[in-house]
Amino acid sequence: xxxxxxxxxxxxxxxxxxxxxxxxxxxxxxxxxxxxxxxxxxxxxxxxxxxxxxxxxxxxxxxxxxxxxxxxxxxxxxxxxxxxxxxxxxxxxxxxxxxxxxxxxxxxxxxxxxxxxxxxxxxxxxxxxxxxxxxxxxxxxxxxxxxxxxxxxxxxxxxxxxxxxxxxxxxxxxxxxxxxxxxxxxxxxxxxxxxxxxxxxxxxxxxxxxxxxxxxxxxxxxxxxxxxxxxxxxxxxxxxxxxxxxxxxxxxxxxxxxxxxxxxxxxxxxxxxxxxxxxxxxxxxxxxxxxxxxxxxxxxxxxxxxxxxxxxxxxxxxxxxxxxxxxxxxxxxxxxxxxxxxxxxxxxxxxxxxxxxxxxxxxxxxxxxxxxxxxxxxxxxxxxxxxxxxxx
Length: 392
Fold this sequence. Notes:
- The protein contains 10 helices and 17 strands.
- It is of the alpha/beta class.
- Strand 11 and strand 12 form a beta hairpin.
């Protein structure tokens, strides 16, 4: 295969970012775009150099039947994102999907079985696993420098303002709460109904923790503040949701997320890992540096280390690609998997290891804090590749 002919589904902020980025990465050719909000289509075409070569679709099913594309870049923010990925696989298209992979366990299973049945590539476009600090911590853990990691924490507590929660669906324009009196046409977006914990820990920080641990979650319990938001009562989401988890290798994890509570617009992410031989933790603010403590090296206190998101070994093409230069790796790995059959660092099973604990945490919250088991999506004695698990 030469260039990967890719169609971009979802033309909001992330879709535009993908359009700009994929035109800068060799091996891609954008041949189609899809969004049901038609004004966003023209805006997207304005960012494409050869717009005359691009087919435009308002219907997702018509988009999937277009034979001029090999892959779908799925950049939608909808509860049906998992179903849309599965439908693309069923239509014979490779899929590179924005996070989270899905919002239901049924959709997770549908994606897995379609990949097994078709042999197509499914990639979860989760970029934080490629950050320099995470690669360093992964190596420290793999080499035993931290000993047995018994406890880990991850959190994604971000404040992006309120404009993502209200939109005029005829024009595509978004408005903050303060502007609503002058824009009665603005309606609540799907964010009001999407589970906070799935979009939070099911997107980035779960993958960071599992990448360092080389592990998967087997059980989880979740808790939440009440709805609506205390900070912005017009937003019908909880401010904070938290999950406690246990892994297959016997590590306890705490994961926290929230997006409606104002806080400094610096680092949204934070993690720490505590092991029998040492610990590492990320900075608490932009005024600090990450820290390490090793038990057997005569260290009496934490030592600061200049770990950063950007990698010291990043190729020139990665610089400025987004998310601390990590977006480059998401798209080059997907390209190489489609064109050359190279294995993905985050394959479909690891993608579901990242997503499923967050979905089950949400299920736990809905059921009053009930302990939930998390499935292993890999084929085994009880399930052949391409078959659904019993009870799904």
